[in-house]
Amino acid sequence: MSINFYSKFFPLIKKGVASVPFQLRPLSTRTDLFNVENKSEEYAIFRLNKPPVNSLNLEYLNLLNNQLDEFERNPKLKGIILTSDVKSTFSAGVDILEMYKCEPKRLEAVWRAVQDFWIKLYGSKKIYIAALNGHVLALGCAIAMSCDYRIMVDNDKTKIGITAVLLGINAPSWVKNTMINTIGFRETEKSLKFAKIYNPHQALKLGLIDEIVSSDKLLSRSEEVMKTWCKIPTLAREMTKESMRSETLGKLVNNREVDVQEFITSTMDPHLQDNLGKYLASLKKK
Ligand SMILES: CC/C=C\C/C=C/C/C=C\CCC/C=C/C(=O)SCCNC(=O)CCNC(=O)[C@H](O)C(C)(C)COP(=O)(O)OP(=O)(O)OC[C@H]1O[C@@H](n2cnc3c(N)ncnc32)[C@H](O)[C@@H]1OP(=O)(O)O
Question: What is a single cellular component term in the Gene Ontology annotation (predicted)?
Fold first, then answer.
């Protein structure tokens, strides 16, 4: 069995890492839109910071994809805690403005960047812990489910889930598969079919998240878990992750064009465009 999981799939998304030599990295990376803090040689904290809701547009996805590549190029780095500096939101998913009244070429680029992000994250051999400080919606939920472990703040007002169906969107098969791998087939079917949104305690009961902590303990608990897992023999942990995830990953890697076309066709549908317009207006009205 191949142990080089990431580089096995990475060339297929046309950004091979094998030819990029490892370079020494600065201790931390800060941009306006995210912050990476290297806590030790072994793990880092990656904070999204695109107020008001960390919505994912093309430029932001490209930036985040570059950062995931950067993590992969560091052989000493074992894990990343993914969280958000935005008050009360982890991520509200794709920037709906990218989907509403969109140009097909731009929409295609957005979707390819979404696919890249998921393939890099779900296919990474590193440990990803999602420290969920706030709302985790739509693609934000898919991102959290693609991490190895989810810890969420204890706040009943915080929401997690995917409500695509309310707008007439059939969630892509790789999102469904990620959810099935997290909470099982029956709960996924109910969750997606009936646009279920959960508070942290409901999500914990379902297995959609793994732990709930008070907000002041979110990072310290995430670091505690990370430190424990960094002690697990690396090669065996990586091989186990690969063997658990390669089938699901391969289903998108080998089917990207179909997934892109399905997304473009369904998003450009006039009925869906109408729904998106009304949905955007309802968000703005609040
Ligand atoms: C539209 C499709 C829906 C679901 C698709 C589901 C996904 C399937 C899974 C994955 C892949 C398929 C394709 C993926 C698509 C997506 O991810 S589309 C994004 C769907 N996201 C949502 O439906 C979340 C919408 N947002 C909210 O529910 C709330 O904003 C919040 C609970 C996250 C935060 O609430 P508040 O703190 O009360 O903040 P406001 O609601 O006032 O929002 C502040 C500000 O931000 C704007 N905004 C919110 N979300 C988005 C977004 N996703 N894209 C762009 N802009 C967004 C909102 O309009 C406010 O704007 P202003 O009024 O300040 O101008």
Answer: mitochondrial matrix
Assess whether the C-beta atom of 252 lies below 6 angstroms from ligand 1. no
- The structural architecture, per CATH, of the domain 3-284 is Alpha-Beta Complex (3.90)
Residue owning the nearest CA to atom 64 of ligand 1: 284
Domain range summary for the chain, segments of one domain joined by +: 3-284
Report the separation in Å between the CA atom of 96 and the middle of ligand 1, taken as the mean of its atom positions.
Answer: 7
Please, which pLDDT band fits residue 28 given cuts at 50, 70 and 90? Answer: low
Ligand 1 midpoint to CA 241 (Å): 31
Closest to 138 measured CA to CA, from 102, 201, 96, 110: 96
Q: pLDDT of 223-242, one tens digit each? A: 999 999 999 999 999 999 99
The verdict on the CB of residue 88 being under 6 Å from ligand 1 is yes
pLDDT score for 30 = 58
